[in-house]
Amino acid sequence: MRADLIALLPELVLAVLGMVILLAGLATGKSRNRAIGAGAVLSLAVTGVALWLAAGATDPAARFFAGMFALDHFAVFFKVLFLLSSALVILLSLDYLERNDYRPGEYHALVLFATVGMMTMASGTSLATIYVGLELMALSTYVLAGYFRREVKSHEAAAKYFVLGALSSGILLYGLSLVYGTTGTLDLAVLARTLGTGGVPTATLVGVALLACGFLFKVAAVPFHVWTPDVYEGAPTPITAFMSVGPKAAAFAMFLRVFVGGFGPLDDQWRWLVGAAAALTMVWGNIAALTQDNVKRMLAYSSIAHAGYALVGLVAGGPGGVQSVLFYMLVYTVTNLGAFGFVIMLESRGYAGETVQDYAGLSRKHPLAAFGMLLFMLSLGGIPPTAGFMGKLFLFAAAVNAGYVWLVVVAVLMSAVSLYYYFRIVLQMYLRDGDEAQPAPLVEAPWTERVIWACGFAVLLIGLLPAPFLAAARATVGVLGGP
Amino acid sequence: MDFVTNLLNIICYVPLVGVLVIIFLLRRGQTAAIKTVATVTAGLDFALSLPLWFLYVPDGPAFQFAYVHEWIPSVGAKYHFGVDGISVLLILLTTLLGFISVYSSFSAITHREKEYYVFLLLLQTGMLGVFMSLDFVLFYVFWEVMLVPMYFLIGVWGGPRKLYAAIKFFLFTLVGSVLMLVGILALYFYNSTGLEAVGLSGLGNAPTFDVTELFKIAPQIPPNLQFWVFLAFFVGFAIKVPMFPFHTWLPDAHVEAPTAGSVILAGVLLKMGTYGFIRFSLPLLPDATHKAQWWVVLLAIIGIVYGALVAMAQKDMKKLVAYSSVSHLGFVMLGMFALNHQGLAGSVLQMINHGLSTGGLFLLVGIIYDRRHTRMLSDYGGLAKVMPIFAMLFMIITMASIGLPTLNGFIGEFTILVGAFNRSITWAVLAATGIVLGAAYMLWMYQQVFFGEITHEENKTLKDLSLREQWTLIPLIVLCFWIGLYPKPFFRILEPSIKRVVQVVDADYAKSPVVQLAAPSTRAQER
To answer: What is the pTM of this model?
Structure first.
């Protein structure tokens, strides 16, 4: 029992601190925006320390709570990623909340609770644990999407997100019950052993297919992506940034755990399904993004496309595939948070920031931030020397190695297509002259800018010296089991 | 810090240092200082690259000045720089043209100077890295790094249709290079773990992207795999060359690019594709190269004739020169895919020649464009009377481009034709028509611009070249004469590297006693 609690220590710490933030926010109202934000970041840092202690004190191979919970390298990698992305999102929200005059307490607390959920998902070695984590994350995010209640678009986003999210959870749960009913277990390791002996009933396969659909819904893969553009466009921009990285990475964590680990023996059955979804997602995400004038919407389609790339790594499977997905999630997180940070910065500086045309001439007015945005666009497009290139290189290498050359050809051609819409922003920033008049900044956005710089630096660092980051992803090899 | 072992690093990153100085130490308004820093950086880079010429030992190891450092050990990607004779010449060409294009931009670029010189120098680092990289990942990084600054050079400082031209350039080359990446990965896995899912077992070597390691397995690569990898590489390189029918981005990019952009584009960027063929496709995929030989030569010859014919119909000087590039690059490809010593040596030399003469032509067109803001042939005529120095320099470069003996173009084209002739008389005959057509369109252009009466009032008051403008051209002209009169040192540097390529790609031919590489150089020398 003691070992169980030690393994769960990071989640416990963060949940408690999240409640403290919630209460502190209620006590202070809107007056202490920065202090509450600082508290939230500090909570994440403390959780990081707790994670470090807990990981040091436990055996990575051990299972806790009767095999339902693990603190292996895979979990630790994702938890660090979640803590990092949540901290960046909170920093991006500071200026935004102040400008829009919303109470910070619940907001930050919800981000922290969602983080607890994501961390649980990454650690879950039983379908039950994973589902509980997923719902904690999802419920927090539904509320966050509608948090700016004075904006109609935000309402719409929240409602859509909630209804479709609940639907996907239902599908997932149904698949889960079929798997449980036919195999008699929720434990992924037991599941892998049972399925490995052969003689899999059709009902199990239906369950696996339903689970795949539910997961594809959560990572926003085509054809389960329709909620994404509307929700991303309508939600408050920091929350859009959050949804595009944290929950997406968490969904990939559970996807990997369940499919590569638990359903590994069935990979002949699910690979073609996920492979087809990956190809469709890349093609449709990128093609639809071509025509978007609204930047948030474009980034939404871009995030759909990126889910497609990451799915390529999942389809490739094996140690190479898994580590490349992990590495890609890291790359995608810093890049996308940087890009959304730029959008947030523009919004708080009084630019409309919504349509591509609003970006005209920005390289003259904000040269450093615009350069950062250039790096993010290059990274999303996969052009060296940025992190995005290395991420795609490892993903595609894994897929070529696994024999999915056709999928890689689709992926690289679609990356070339994607450059067209990423460069629409670059074109506006650098090649067009905007009106010289500079709108009066509504609020200074020092923290937003700092996040942009940090992400820009990270994008270059990972792009030029990927070795240590790849090694961290590599440490997870073999953790999931499976073939 | 040992100078010689770090020489390649120094050459590659000196422009980057200049970039950092300009970005962080200078403000937007300090144009004079920015120009000085850029010029000094580019000049220094050229000076630093000169030791390569003297210190490179032609008969020494295959790749010299090697610099190897761990980069991404888990996948076997190394930071590996090294040069052979082919890359030495191309690096020297790059640093020379880099310097000239900075120096020639002073009057042409009048807005956003800071960014302009930043991108120009950044581009130079990218190009040099491509010629130095001996690791596929590193090569690919530099290969794509070049795209971004070039995109901006065309897109910000270009002509009226610059946005279209810039994105077209970017996407065309990108599509090619991403497919190349798939080819690289296939080779990489064949060398190590294999591609089990398609039934191809690997060689089980330690995974590596190091090109010198992969050269060793070239004969073992099964023909089937060679074919697909060759195809992937071909798309990437042929778009960059550009070969017919992948050339359509070139006229747009050239016409819209600023002068220095055109010089770099024609002088160096187009050589990336041909360099890719000779560095990777030929030695790594000998079997596929053989099988594709006929097809590539066909495209090359079509390119020669088609480029020349289209050039004849142009009314815009820059477009004319752009199409002449398609024709000349066809020659380079023809020589290369003759797959013998003369053809390859001529091909590499012609890359240099084309860089010198076409770079020169774009400079000249840029100079007259700065004065009159038009490139239409019909807007000129009789310029020889008002601009005699300009007319003379233009004549020399024109002759170099046509391939008049005593100038460099002749040596290159002649050697290529010897190589082609060795393979097939038909090839040589067809290609030779390109030379005739080349003379026609170049002289036609010259005649329209310089001879006859001055028909436009504005042309009567044109100023002849300033001293700075003359000095941008003189180095090119000196080199044109040098290669034209005494090409031996150039062939000497190339010879062992070329031999190594022929050895891999056509071992029988390399053994045959009839022809040896020394032949073209001594022959050319005797004449």
So the answer is: 0.91
